[in-house]
Design brief:
Layout: E1 14-16, E2 26-30, H1 31-40, E3 48-52, E4 57-66, E5 70-81, E6 88-93, H2 97-110, E7 114-119, H3 130-144, E8 151-152, E9 156-157, H4 158-163, E10 170-174, E11 180-181, H5 182-186, E12 194-198, H6 206-214, E13 218-222, H7 230-244
Helix pairs in contact: 2-3, 2-7
Length: 250
Amino acid sequence: MVQTPAWPPHSTPRLFVDEPLSEGSEIRIAGGQAHYLLHVMRLKEGAPVKLFDDRTGEYLATVTATGKRDLMLNIEGKLREREAAPDLWLCQALIKKDRLDWIAEKSCELGIARFVPVLTQRCVADKLKEDRLRCQMIEAAEQCERTALPEIAELSKLDALLRDWPSDRTLLFCDERGGSPLADVLKSGEHAKSAILIGPEGGFSDGENAAIRAHPQAMPVSLGPNILRADTAAIAAIAVWMALIPTNKG
């Protein structure tokens, strides 16, 4: 007996669309996304495309018309609802842009809810290109079948971050100077609403370290005996949190 091929096929391209999607509506794709679909994937009329909007979920669409620089899609139906992102923030001090891009990409893959860029005394940069980070996250979400993108907060100085920190959120301070093992802290399951704080390449200054440790919501934690680079520490900490917080396993 001949089996019916899976539909849509596994090779179906998947794109983020920054506008609300709904079943039965039409959408025009242009720019770089159109170039990808038309000239890289070489889609023709009738071809399937998966779309997600970071609002309502993921949809299956079909190409209904193609032009030289754009194409029209008809949204056939919803494939799944937008996923519920675990309530984890990453508070990341600015580092070199290529490594910050990598953190944005991988933290999106792992499923954080919010990315909070932080300016500290030893940061090698003092400006942030939010659009660049968002592009990294979008590409990661497209490839990893995420339906939710992390929110990107405005760049804030460390003292302002600590001053305005919410009283109901644990600040897991990854400190190379020592702290409780992160895995031990999380095994209780009591920190499902938390944030991970990672410093810049040169670490936090003595004054910054003392200010963080003095904060009532801060909890110094260790990622092991080795000193890690900022980008390694960020992804390692997120991975441990995702593996051990029970509410993330639903």
